[in-house]
Amino acid sequence: MTKMTKKIRGPVAILLATVSAAGCTRPHDAPQAEPASLNVTDWTAKTELYMEYPPLIAGQSARFAVHLTKLDDFKALNAGTPSIEFTPERGGKPVVLRGSAPSRPGAFRVEGTPPAAGRYRWALMVDAPGLSDRHDLGTVAIFPDEASAKAEAEKQPADDPAAIAYLKEQQWTNEFATTQVREAELRISIKAPATIEPLSGGEALVAAPASGRFMAESLAAIGTSVSAGQALGRLEPRLAGTDDRATLAADVTQAQVALDSARAEQTRAERLLADRAVPARRVEDARRAVTTAEARLRVAEARLAQRDETLRSGGGVASGNAFTIRAPIAGRIADVFATLGASYDEGAPLFKIVRTDRVGLRAQMPAANAMVARDLTDVAFDIPGRPDPIPLRAEHRRDAGVIDQKTGALPVQFEIQNPGGQLLVGQSGTAVLYTRDRLRAPTVPKAAVLFEAGRPYVFVQVGGERFARRYVEIATRDGDQIGLKSGAGIGDRVVVRGAYEVQLASAAKGLPAEGHVH
Asked: 205 by DSSP, 3-state: which?
């Protein structure tokens, strides 16, 4: 789609110098009143044309200042020749005015005498190495005399005084590009404050299972990836009395020896009783001694077994007189509290481990949008400092079903795959939540939208060198595309590169005095 504009410019405009008589104004001459200047802007798929010209009078030579921009890179066309074709509206042979090679990149000249007075369909053609293009410019009037041309020119509306002047020479030498506002179907999105947090069971605090001294070959550092069951170090318990495993083991041995001796005595007493060498009471005493020794052995064994079982709890296993401290989950070490050789009481934290390959995104869904919380299709996470939201793969969605009284929002958690660890636990940002509904709207790239005190606006190109600031109302955002409710219409051309330079130009009081030179 192309857009063409025609505007009249007052005698103070810079363009007068380019369409006046061939000679330059002498520095000591008194200023002369100059005829008005017209201009036209047109786009094809290949080039942009911005052309300045005087009102056209039959029999009088006219000079056309032609500016051609390549739309593949928005740089000046630096070779080729243009020509202007006039075809009578009622039919007839066209008249063609031939131009010349550029006087400098992008700046061409076509000079010649227009055909007889009347209305014509006109077009500009350009033939350059590797590029051939045609701009159909609609209709143009050629007047029989200067008076009628001037009278018609005075009817034309003047340029918008609020428009921002940004010359072609500036556009060609700076980063600059525009694109058309197009209608597109976009996903409807909802924005909500969000944070990245561990999943349920995705965070573990490794604590000392008993009082003792922490030892390891090397101390794991923050950020180290660990697997479930991986050894992190060992804890040597403080030894006191029968709490020592060696003492408990000795107690078991002594109880076993006492039991063996009691059983031997019982066997001997029973044999002597059979020979009627001892009274029956001695056998009964021997049997009671065996029973007592068996009970003592069971107690000693139970105490030893209880100690070993205790050592197995809290992430460690019995290994001689020390715990082996192991990671209960796979993840990354988020914090290290342990110090080699330091002593810790039972329950003191040693390491904090967080799972990072899968994390949770907790969004605070506004209460007004709570009804659509269960009809979401896609999720993205917008982090301050990043140019675009990060698309996320959400596998599970959960919500409490209760509005938080403090925030007035519905907490919604998404389980997110986090390859490469690009999302950091504890990170804050904005969740972009897409619903199943779609909206057709005028659409511009995200790069086209700027903000002033939180109010969005775009720069619309209203002519080859004229731009207007238009405040817009955003309807929805879908990736790097923004749908608009108002402010810019389908077919408008908006600045997507170089908006900052256009903004600076808006502070200028007028066009540079030198203007264009052709």
From this structure: strand
* Geometric angle at alpha carbon 5, from 149 and 111, rounded to 5°: 55
CA torsion angle 399 404 407 409 (round to 10): 40
- 170-190 burial, b for 16+ CB within 10 Å, e for fewer? bbbeeebbbbbbeebebbbbb
Q: Is the pLDDT of residue 20 over 60?
A: no
SS3 annotation, 113-176:
CCCCCEEEEEEEEEEECCEEEEEEEEEEEEECCHHHHHHHHHHCCECCCCCEECCHHHHHHCCC
What is the per-residue pLDDT for 57? 94
**Look-up of token digits 């958690």:** 413
Residues 186 and 377 sit within 8 Å (Cβ to Cβ)? no
204-354 topology per CATH: OB fold (Dihydrolipoamide Acetyltransferase, E2P) (2.40.50)
For 244, which DSSP code? S
| Residue 395, both tokens | 């596998």
Helices 245-274, 280-312: axis angle to 10 degrees equals 160
Mean pLDDT, residues 357-380: 84
Residues contacting 177, CB < 8 A, separation 6+:
74, 495, 496, 497, 498
Average pLDDT over residues 336-362: 92
Degrees, nearest 5: CA angle 346-352-357: 150
Rounded to whole angstroms, how far apart are CA atoms 94 and 100? 19
CATH of the domain spanning 180-196+358-497, picked from 3.40.50.2300, 3.40.50.2000, 2.40.30.170, 3.80.10.10: 2.40.30.170
Q: pLDDT of 273-315, one tens digit each?
A: 888 777 888 888 888 888 888 888 888 888 777 666 655 544 4
Q: Is the pLDDT of residue 483 over 80?
A: yes
When pLDDT is cut at 50, 70 and 90, the band that residue 184 belongs to is very high
If one counts every other C-beta atom within 10 angstroms of the C-beta of residue 26, the result is 7
Tokens representing 304 are: 């030893």
What average pLDDT does the structure give for the chain? 84
Looking at residue 35, its pLDDT comes to 56
Per-residue tokens: 338: 């342990």
When pLDDT is cut at 50, 70 and 90, the band that residue 24 belongs to is very low
Distance CA 330, CA 355 (A): 6
Mean pLDDT across the stretch 421-442?
A: 89
Asked if residue 234 lies in contact with residue 325, where contact means CB atoms within 8 angstroms, the answer is yes
